[in-house]
Amino acid sequence: MTGDHATSAAHQAETPRERVFGLPVPWTAIPSQGDSPGEVRGYAGRAMSSTAIARSRALLDAALAAAVFAVSLLLLAHDGPLAIRPNSRGLDPFGIVLVGCAAVPFLLRRRFPLLVYTVAAAVSLVLAWFGYPTGLLPGPIAALYLLAANAGWTLRSAAVTAGLLLAYLGASAAGTFPVIGLVHTALPWAAAWFAGERTRLRRQQLAELRQRAVDAEREAEAERRRAVREAERERRLAVAEERARIARDLHDSAGHAISLIAVRAGAARLRQDGDARALEAIEELARQTVSDIDQLVGSLREDDQEPATPPGLASLDTLIAHHRTAGLRVALDVTGPARPLGAAADQAAYRILQQALANSARHGTGDARVELDHTGPDFALTVTNPVHGTPRRANGHGVIGMRERAALVGGTLDATRLEGAYRLHARLPYGGSPS
């Protein structure tokens, strides 16, 4: 950045300011509506600090004006060094007034640097015109430094032009044109100019560094918030997955057992003389269901507890025996030599078969055919049962849970209604693991 735009950007990078009783105060020191008492006290503290800073700056400006005034008087009183005109006019009340006119504007140097430079240069020119020694007066030199350090490119260029013109007019006032004296006079002006430029560039660099630090802090805060949101999203996703798993387990375990209990209780009710074996089976199923639910609740309550081994196809005979005892005629057809499934796929196959048989007992005619096929690249499970009456929906909670179980291990499941029958077909990979 160069020129007026660079200076404007540097000023914009500083803290925005308001004015209270004519003193510059950062906007962060001004309370707004809705602030708590603690925040208001914080604002008050910052306002007091800003007021102290303003006072110290005012004292510094006054000291600078006094120094310019005192040094200028000393130089005029002793026919200052590098004076352009020899045997110049001595210090008198008129000269003191002129020097005071050049020094007083330094009290406003922060707000009006161009005004300070203009007045100091004009007074220096008037002093030279009236024969005072003006070779090295501090007023114009200090004002030029302040202008180079704070003004834009246009004002700085105008100041250089005015300075050269002032030097020329001052030299011309002597009636001759002493080149060496003029060069010696221009050297302090050039030094003041380059010192002001360096100060301005340094301030601009510091402002850019502060802005970069602010931007980096904002980016870090935004990244932290994104990380918090992502962690919260993952937590909610994990909770949702756990709730879905619990719902599937409860639906498959308790729903299956309750369906069998209902079938057996209905059969026992229809028998006039009662059926002790059916009642015993009902009692056994009820106890098993309570045990399964206790295991599930226990695993939820105790995170460090070693999880119980989930049932798999090794319990297939027991599952089919329960249904046969309840009166469901189950036919089992296994194709090909048995091949071991992964733990997750094995549990998914058992739960799918358990839910399919429960649906057969609840909605079918009492018959079910189970087909297990180990000959393909994937394990295939098919359950077909005759149905009667109004066809049931193929997308109930049970079917949804079975599809979720198949998808979790990389498999698929289709549920279709055929001519007078309901067919469920699942394909599970042998190495299926939870995704």
Automatic annotation (TrEMBL):
<keyword id="KW-0597">Phosphoprotein</keyword>
<feature type="domain" description="Signal transduction histidine kinase subgroup 3 dimerisation and phosphoacceptor">
    <location>
        <begin position="242"/>
        <end position="304"/>
    </location>
</feature>
<keyword id="KW-0472">Membrane</keyword>
<keyword id="KW-0175">Coiled coil</keyword>
<dbReference type="Pfam" id="PF07730">
    <property type="entry name" value="HisKA_3"/>
</dbReference>
<feature type="transmembrane region" description="Helical">
    <location>
        <begin position="90"/>
        <end position="108"/>
    </location>
</feature>
<feature type="coiled-coil region">
    <location>
        <begin position="199"/>
        <end position="237"/>
    </location>
</feature>
<dbReference type="GO" id="GO:0016020">
    <property type="term" value="C:membrane"/>
</dbReference>
<keyword id="KW-0418">Kinase</keyword>
<dbReference type="GO" id="GO:0046983">
    <property type="term" value="F:protein dimerization activity"/>
</dbReference>
<dbReference type="GO" id="GO:0000155">
    <property type="term" value="F:phosphorelay sensor kinase activity"/>
</dbReference>
<keyword id="KW-0067">ATP-binding</keyword>
<protein>
    <recommendedName>
        <fullName>histidine kinase</fullName>
        <ecNumber>2.7.13.3</ecNumber>
    </recommendedName>
</protein>
<keyword id="KW-0812">Transmembrane</keyword>
<keyword id="KW-0547">Nucleotide-binding</keyword>
<keyword id="KW-1133">Transmembrane helix</keyword>
<feature type="transmembrane region" description="Helical">
    <location>
        <begin position="144"/>
        <end position="169"/>
    </location>
</feature>
<dbReference type="InterPro" id="IPR011712">
    <property type="entry name" value="Sig_transdc_His_kin_sub3_dim/P"/>
</dbReference>
<dbReference type="InterPro" id="IPR050482">
    <property type="entry name" value="Sensor_HK_TwoCompSys"/>
</dbReference>
<feature type="transmembrane region" description="Helical">
    <location>
        <begin position="114"/>
        <end position="132"/>
    </location>
</feature>
<dbReference type="InterPro" id="IPR036890">
    <property type="entry name" value="HATPase_C_sf"/>
</dbReference>
<feature type="transmembrane region" description="Helical">
    <location>
        <begin position="58"/>
        <end position="78"/>
    </location>
</feature>
<keyword id="KW-0808">Transferase</keyword>
<keyword id="KW-0902">Two-component regulatory system</keyword>
<dbReference type="GO" id="GO:0005524">
    <property type="term" value="F:ATP binding"/>
</dbReference>
